């Protein structure tokens, strides 16, 4: 299909962006140290620089609007990225329910903070990451750049917006975040793993040394887990681990850190803890697990845990703190299981 040429005819004066222009202040701040990116063209002809910039085969989307924001040019890149053909958008105004640009907060920009409308008005180039609505209905991230266009006499005759598809960059960012999440998450239970917990514990110990921010450590061990595994199989044992993990996760206070330590053991960092707070938190975890069970077929398996807890001191290392919590949980086991044992440094 032949490309529609740019309409460089200066329309009747309607103000810098037209009386119908609803554009408000743009979200992307103008760049005060850059000269305005203004394209100029002789009467009726395109400036060679503009002609070269606006070419049909660019992979980026490019479109031109007049001062009333009526679209007079729409290239192949714009068609590919947006899904809208040139025939569909030409002679429509860009705010007429076409791309429906929104920012990362979901704010509609076309009627409140259009970068292109502001650039037509003040001549300042703008750049912003926004989300357009594809013809198919989904949202697509694009990076837009706007420029003002003037004729040979310096009269504003419209503006140009180029936009590039940022979907691949967004996907790479999501992949990186997913990889980070997987590296720090226990695959079976979905809880943070030992690596994550080690980092959190190191931070807590540093804060205790520097600022005196007290905290406690709890070690939670499932009672008779090996017997359950041997009796019902490893798949059933996995269900026990997941039930305990979900129960513990729902029982800890916001700000506390819970993780799967390994095997049938879980660990919890308790913020701003003294002995009473630590004991209360440990008992709550024990009690809630004791009121949980795993049901599969004819099996109705109760679950209990033993909890060993201790308070950190300025002289503690990660090793000394864990040794004390481990000794506490052993004490709970020796005392009959399904109970809490607190061991403090002398």
Folded structure, characterized:
The chain has 346 residues and is of the alpha+beta class. It has two domains: 38-171, Beta-Lactamase (2-Layer Sandwich); 184-342, 2-Layer Sandwich (Alpha-Beta Plaits). The chain is built from ten helices and 13 strands. It has helices spanning 48-53, 76-82, 86-89, 115-122, 167-183, 194-211, 225-232, 234-251, 275-290, 318-334; strands at residues 38-41, 61-65, 71-74, 126-133, 139-151, 156-165, 215-222, 257-262, 265-271, 293-296, 299-302, 305-311, 340-342. Strands 1, 2, 3, 4, 5 and 6 form a six-stranded mixed sheet that branches. A five-stranded mixed sheet has the order 8-9-7-12-13, sandwiched between helices. The protein has a two-stranded antiparallel ribbon with strand order 10-11. α7 crosses α8 and α8 (234-251) packs across α9. The longest helix has 18 residues, at 194-211. The chain starts with 37 loop residues before the first strand and ends with a strand. The model is unreliable at 1-44 (pLDDT under 50).
Indicate the proportion of strand residues: 15-25%
Which structural class matches the secondary elements? alpha+beta
Q: What is the oligomeric state here?
A: single chain
> What is the correct CATH architecture of the largest domain?
2-Layer Sandwich
Extract low-pLDDT stretches: 1-44
